[in-house]
Amino acid sequence: MEKLNFFGVGPKIGLIGLPCLILTIVISVFYKVPFRYVMKNSKPLIIAGIFLLVAGLVFYMATGKLLMKGLKQTRLITSGTYFCCRNPLYAAFILMIIPGLSLLLNSWLILAPGLIMYLVFKILIKKEYTELELFFGEQYRSYKSETPELLPIPAKKILRNLRK
Is the separation of the CB atoms in 144 and 86 below 8 Å? Predict the structure, then answer.
C-alpha cells in the first residue's frame, strides 16, 4: 500500500447524513412546535448552541489543517485534535456541530441525522481502521489502544501523564 485514501469514509457518511440534516432543519423550521425542547426561545439554549457550533467548527477546521499536513508528509497524526480522539472530523460534526444546530434551532429532531451518521460511521469505519493498521502497523495499533474512537476526551492519556 503506497498511499492512504484521502477521504476515508467521510463522503459516504455525508451522502447519507447531510440530506437527512437538511430535511430535519427544514421540517423543524416549518413545524416548530412538535420538535421543540422548550416552548419559548431560551437564551441559555441559544448560548449553548452557539458555543457547541463554534467549538465544533473550530475543532473541524483545526483537524482539516492537521489532516492535510499529515497526508502530505504521509505520517500518522497523533497530536492536536488527534490527541483527543482518533476521528476528530466525525466527532466535530456528530458530537458538536449537529447538537449545536439542534440547540440553536430549538429542535430535538435535528439530532436524528447525528444518530444516523454515527451508525453509518460505526459500520463503515472498520475499513478505514484496517487501512491505517496496514499502512502504519504497530504505531497505529498503539495509538488506537490508548485514544478514544470518537468522544474527544483522552482519559487514558491524561491519567497516564498524571502518573508520570
Answer: yes
Cα 31 to the chain's mean position, in Å? 28
The CA distance from 151 to 113, in Å, is 17
| pTM exceeds 0.85 | yes
Q: Do 88 and 105 touch, CB atoms closer than 8 A?
A: no
CA dihedral 118, 119, 123, 124 (to 10 degrees): -40
Every domain of the chain and the residues it spans: 10-163
Domain range 10-163, its CATH number among 2.40.340.10, 1.10.240.10, 3.10.580.10, 1.20.120.1630:
1.20.120.1630
Q: What is the pLDDT of residues 78-89, one digit of tens each?
A: 999 999 999 999
- CA separation (Å) from 146 to 1, 8, 109, 129? 25, 21, 34, 14
Counted residue by residue, the chain has a size of: 164
